Amino acid sequence: MLQISTGPDRSWEIDYHAPDDLRLNGQPFAWDVATLAPGRFQVLHGGRSYDAEVVSADYTAKQFVLKINGQRIELAAKDRFDLLLERLGLSAAATVQVNELKAPMPGLIVDVRVQPGQAVLKGDPLLVLEAMKMENILKAPADGTVSAIKVGLRDNVQKGQLLVQFS
Question: pTM value?
Fold first, then answer.
């Protein structure tokens, strides 16, 4: 289960088991999705057609920017673990010390925006990873100091590969 929100007053619960088994706020959600290009989709729902484009995806912070029929929409996702920590009054950042950043997917490093010794704040851009012709800005998961950058510009990386270490 995911909770998707577009602001403090707009959120939805999504249960996704397979493309043909999707529930939105507990109700079946019928849709058809066709991939037009990497990061671009045609969605059919309720007799209407929607053009959807993934503008950016920050998998660490679980924040996404989409364009639906040209309208920009910012989404934040919380999985069941995030929701549990929230119910317990804890935050994931407070309970886990982050010492490294790993690649969320395979891709190509197209920009390195920090250097060793640099202090960063949570959310600061560190690297840009191109995957499936989309640029993904990888951001600092917590406040800290960059101790080492384990990749260089134009390096191909694999999912889970160590990219940046923090001290």
Answer: 0.55
